[in-house]
Structure prediction request, 719 residues.
Amino acid sequence: MSQSFMTDYGERLMDNGYSVIPIMPGSKVPGRFSGGEWSPYPDWSRHCDRPSKPFEVDIWRRWPGCGVGIATGSVVGIDIDIMDAALAIQLAELATSMLGDTPCLRIGQQPKRLLVYRAATPFAGRKRLPLEVLARGQQFVAHAIHPGTGQPYAWPEDSLLDIPLAQLPVIDEAAAMAWLDRAYALIPPELRPRSLHLPSSDSAWRGPSDPRGTLGAVKAALAYLPNEDLDGASWITMGNAIKAALGEEGLDLWLDWSKSSGKSGTSGKPDTAERRWAKLRPHSIGAGSIYGWAIDRGWVPPPEVTLNGDAAERAAQPHPAAAMLARAEATPHSPAEDIHPAAAFLAKLNASQAKQQAAPIPVPAAILQPGGVLQMLVDECVRSALRPQPFLALGAAICAVGALAGRQYRTRTDLRTNIYIAAVAESGGGKDHAPEVIRRCFDLAKLDRYLGGENLASGRGMVSALEQHPVRLFQIDEFGLFLNSVAGTKAPTHKAEIWSELMKLYSRAKGVHRGTEYANKKDAPRVDIHQPCVCFYGTTTPSTFWKALEGGAMMDGSLARFLVFVTDTDRPDRNRAAGIINPPAPLLEALKAITRGQGEPPPPGNLPDVHVVPMTASEEATPFTVPMTAAAEALHDRKLTEEDAWARKVAGTPQAAIVNRLAENATKLALICAISRDPAHPTITEVETAWGWALAEHCTRTLLRDAGRFLADSEFEKR
Prediction:
């Protein structure tokens, strides 16, 4: 097995104050290991803004060949990517004379080198190839095998293992940029790049799709794109971008930028740039390209600068009500008529705002006491959270237990434990902690096969994961944005398929999800998934969630499959006793017990997991039918009568789809609660039934009330 640098160095670097990230073997790219293979880590930059967490490093250290990267922000890297040994040493000495003598020098491929400093305040990096200041939002490799040399990265003097972050010499942005300018001036022309070096990543930002920009924004961006004797293709590319962005207004910028090159005037024709400008016919390029190149080199667009030309024109136009207000000002009126023309509109707006600011519906205390494994998970979430959210933690726990119980249990009406939950709270309120606890528990209990990916690229990708293991828990951050991307009216086909598959899978839990038919059945046969169990837990802010619902998910009833957990405290008091996520052994054993299903637990021994039968998607499962007591049946019947009356009252409205799912959701919750309390011998009693109905009714009433608050001007209210 290949060496894991994360095992050797990750924890020590974290203890020294550095934010570490996993690096894919044989590369310089942050990665993650899942399903037996490495892939790029799309969200690695979040580690630039927070310290690494012990449980993260504990997971990464198990990944084969995992290298160690340092997320920059508090850390700054001075990267000298030059193969001229004497010049590389000269530029490093210039850095130590201008910025201070750092003990930490990293070498990957001699004579290239990187010097490490600490930022007084995090700032954006800047690139002037072959030099770069690596700062906020970037990273460098600390310990791994260099892809070019096949040897480990070297630290000839002290390494970050020896020097804590707090002991590194401190630099600020001005000093770093001063070094960059002076160092670049020492690089001979033949060692400087001759092109714009366009970013190669397909996901890199290219700016607004509208090619038009503003003079101020383009001029500010060009300051980060000096014309350092670039090749002819790059010169023409920049001309096309400026002309598309500004039209003829950009001519002076183009001429100034062209004349800043050392090549300017060498042709003997002083009007070369003007003649080229007249011939330029830009297409598929514009302000967004200029902004993207500048951002790649460290430009941060100032908030006071408007980037889009069309937006700037609209802002400069007179207000649509200017003429009306002028007439109103010029018209004499008596004190009795002294009412602002917009008074009615403002009154309506104030009423709408007051409506949206209504107090949240309190969560009944009994709901937060489900007992069993659910209670153990909630308690661990609350204990370790900086800002505890017990209600949202309950939602995450329900999805976790529902997934582990998948294909193992059912009700007498063949309802299964698959369940979808949306957790709603403001940013910074602690909603993201519970999913971290669930992932940690599953990893430590060796139940990670139940975890689906944190991002869904396509419907086919999601189904493929279920073909490998027919029970999956998907925990999706920013669910509102996700919902808009998959269920919005402009969702691309591959994204819309995700929502379509989620809806189908919800209904196929007791049947068969029949795969896609392909023409080449020999190489691509249809794959059927028997009794797939998908549990889905998405966290979101109210604004993005309700904005996404304007796209129609509320109207078509698809959201009715979700239980919406809205916190009653957006910013809980800080938990001074918050600690590391460290689930107790009894909790981990209880999670494993659920996967074993109904029946007596295995005898004590060293290998209890051998009693877990592997799941195969192509084979029919035979789940245990959980019995219901007579008292529970009687209570359930009474609640069904109440639901019928409610459903008749809202028939023909968008509320109907939500109310009609109430009994189904209540029954699933009661089933999950019973399994949580006794996985070996579950029984749905009156207690579990009352709890399931209380929680389902709370979520339903909250969803309907908030739909009326936040979708007041939409089709939802009209109907």
Remarks:
- The longest strand covers residues 533-540.
- The two ends are 62 Å apart (CA to CA).
- Residues 365 and 391 are 10 Å apart (CA to CA).
